[in-house]
Amino acid sequence: MFLPHASVTEILSAAATLNVSPGDTLMVLVAEHNAPDLDELRNALRQTIPRFFGGIFPAVLSGARAHDEGAVILALPALEPPRVCAVSARAGPSGADLALPTADPCTAVLLADGMSPGISEFLAGVFRQLGPATHCVGGGAGVSAMVQRPCVFTAEGVFDNAAVMAFAPWRCSLGVQHGMKRLVGPIVATRTRQNIIEELNWRPALEVYKAIVERDTGQPLTAENFYDSGRAWAYPFGLVREGAEDVVRDPLAVVDHGIRCAGGVPENTALHVLKGDADHLIAAARRAGERAAAGARSRPRAALICDCVSRRMFLKGRFAEELSAVSAALRPIDHLEPEGMLTIGELSSSGESVLDFYNKTIVVGLLCDA
Amino acid sequence: MPDPAANDVVGTISLLYELALSMGQSLDLDANCDLFIRTLLTRKNLAFGAVWLKASALKNGATAEADSGSYRLVYANPRVRAREDRLPANHPLPARLGNMPFFSVAANEPGFAEAVTENGIQGGAYTVYALGDIGFLKLYSVLRRSAVSPVEVNSLRQVVAKFAVSIEGCLAHRQLARQIEERDRAEGERRTLAMVVEQMEDCVIITDAAGVFRYVNPAFERVTGYAAREVAGLTPRLLKSGRHLPEFYAALWKTVSSGRPWRDRIVNRLKNGSLATFDTIVAPARDEKGRPAGYVAVLRDVTRLMEVEQQYAHAQKMESIGRLAGGIAHDFNNTLTAVLGFGSLLLETTPEDGPDRHAVEQIVLAGERAANLTRQLLTFSRPPMPEMRVMDLNALALNATHLLRRSLGEDVEVVTLLDEHTGSVRADVSLLNQIITNLALNARDAMPRGGRLCLRTAPVELDAAFCAEHAGLAPGPHILLSVRDTGTGMTEEVRRRAFEPFFTTKRTGKGTGLGLSVVYGIVRRLGGCVELDSRPDAGTEVRIWLPRVEARGDTLPVELEEKVVGGRETILVVEDEPMVRDLATRLLRSLGYSVLEVGGGEEALSLLRRYHDRLDLVLSDVVMPRMDGVELTLQLRQERPELQVLYMSGFADDAFAERGLNLDPRRLIRKPFTKETLARKLREILDDRGSGANA
Ligand SMILES: Nc1ncnc2c1ncn2[C@@H]1O[C@H](COP(=O)(O)OP(=O)(O)OP(=O)(O)O)[C@@H](O)[C@H]1O
Fold first, then answer.
1. Is the pTM of this model over 0.80?
2. pLDDT 10s digits, B117-148
3. Domain that holds residue B142
4. Residue owning the nearest CA to atom 17 of ligand 1
5. Looking at residue B581, which CATH number applies to its domain?
6. How many helices (H) and strands (E) does chain B have?
7. Do residue B152 and residue B272 come from a single domain?
């Protein structure tokens, strides 16, 4: 359910109309513009709803539209109360010793602090715990200014460097696509530190990247215009994954002579510099919708779209086309209005491959009856 | 546009590059597997990866031999996907790897079903690689419809082989870490043990197989007086006391060399030459390989304990002797009184140069010895004490030395070191005199060619620790009385037995062997303790501790000589034993008194009525048939309240107590008595007539 104004009162009264049963979990996605104070919201919700979780995002999605202001709320049946897990801000695995439910089927909706440097390691840890029956869908919370702040919450509090998870006894049919194409590669990330690429092919990462981008655009790329020019959005990195699209890492900023990405880059991994164009991206979005729809084996209860905020920055005026394309792809399931959010990184796993953190990707999840 | 095949190769190489570098980053087995397999799963887009190792390769010690060919799951990702965590040695998976180092099998092919050891496997394909000969790597892809091509599988073969090596590295590291941990633990234990041994009260000796000292603990050094470096290179034979027969040591060696521990009490000689008794355990020690490596001995010094035990045993022995003595004392003393009394009377009337003179003298001497013996024996009897008074010990010691001066002879120099703060004890003067006399005479006997006798007194405060080691003492203020001589001293053997009643090293007829045991008995009765310190040719010191009392004690005038003073008064002798009655009558008459004599209470009463006003004093036996002395006195008093009474008794003190009699010791004379004592007692009473009531 989309709410155009995300005030505490409106969220509370809307939640009341959903008739959230005590065993259900309420998911609350808040758009960053005019967003309520999260702690206030959490305290207010706690008075009436025992189980809830949520986060703040650059925008929320409803149907074919993105809203910078407002909120989306959704009731999920729950296997257990939502969880909060710390995502280590330092190097090293975390999340490996969680006791995750192993119900069959099980869908985990996961909202994580998208700016947390340890997120890839965390998801690797979670994956080691996941049974094949558990499907995972979700994305990175945060704001479009890309500064880290407490951005996810449960009844227990509002957190940064954390992930909140809810487990529903549903199946999830996923479509995951980005549509970027390889431009140059493979290049080896010979030195990385979590989400910072320090060296590419044994040379300073920025130097290598700059040469590639400048050759393609014919225009200079500097540390100063790295982010503003929007160039970087057009040339993300792609980590190799056999039999699937590369896993995208958006460059976010220059750190010394390295490049900070959204999501971890394993040291010594082979990657490509990717290039996107609007048509390909929109086509990929449609494909994601189609895949999700095709994979549904039972009655869908909700359609959740996690679309990367960097796609909107890249597509600019044509972003609406992407959302329309997804909606169109989901049209066969006409009783559902797709809802979701713009995310700072996306994540999914369907039991077929590892759970990972993506950038510049659209994840469409159809949450279906068991 | 580059050649797509070449691009594939570059892609594969870069994957191999990443994989190769992802392994061996950690020496921890799980972390090493995690990094490598995660990379593999991510890049190859796989759903599951696992590492299985042979139980024998894991070498965790807990593996039974029969089990060592089996396989253990050491890593799985995702973990919950794993269904089995053990596979028998003959499982089809490793069996198939026996023929080739890797294989791939898809769901629709034969051999797939038996390869499944995970949950939720539907479709897809397995790829399995041997990890050297220590185990195998198992990968699963859901997305594959067919087996992975041999070329593709082969491309990973070398990097997997390296992975196997890295695992071996982890296992070796784990083994080493365990060994180090084990060693640290062992070392910690050893340190704790060493600390315990160092701080133990018991002596600990460790020797090598030849019996040469390898270690002695501080308690050993403290107790034996030998420093660790002094005993280096020596054997425990150093401690041999000569108190055990060779067979004793032979039995010890026979036991320990047969591998069994030996336990017994052993007497050792300490560095200062003294002997000490140890409860000893000697056990053979073995090295890690079970070979005999030497011996460990733990020795507990029980010398003190045994002394205390002996003190108790001794006290009991003395008590039974006392009881026996008390039982025969009455008859014995009556007899002796007669022998002595008549003997001395005879002596008075026998001319110095008469033919019978020597015989009579011998009779009196023998009687005196017997009387002395009986008196000594009687001191073993229990309280109440006669004439308990608070006595100034210094005054008493001075007095006693004066009296002894003559008996000690010219060659013995007497030195008194009397601390002026010594204070008083509660005791019977005669008993204290007896202590000093016995000790002084022993000292004299030990110094036939003269020497020095030192009498020392001092106030001491005894603590609980001291009292624990000295039976019979209670903590608090005490007086130390020490009698030391420069005589022959005693051997260890004699020292141990010196307090035993009837133990003597002196010629027959010379020593009774009762001197020290009497001292012991008296001291015990006074709530004190006696200790003997002596070595051959080093003299002897007897130390006595007596409880000190706060009150100021009497100081006795020094009696230089006993004079016999008689009198003219009339005395009634009441005694059922005719021999003693006869003697008393004669003694009294010889002293000038008028004497009436009767054999019992009734007669005495009727006589009194007749000679009512002529009687001055009644000398009465205490224990008599029909009417005893006390009863008699009560009756006499009704007729003549001011009449004086002196009791005679041959009983031990407790005999009175048993009869419920509480006699004033000043009105009591002990049988056998001499003429002198009788004369003195009578004068004391008769001259003191006006003062105080009678008993
Ligand atoms: N001061 C001493 N120096 C050396 N030996 C002593 C001394 N006092 C006692 N002894 C030894 O202890 C033994 C026992 O002494 P104890 O006084 O009990 O009896 P005794 O002296 O032999 O006999 P008695 O007391 O009749 O003279 C003595 O025979 C003597 O060997």
1. no
2. 988 888 889 999 999 888 999 999 888 888 78
3. 4-176
4. B515
5. 3.40.50.2300
6. 21, 23
7. no
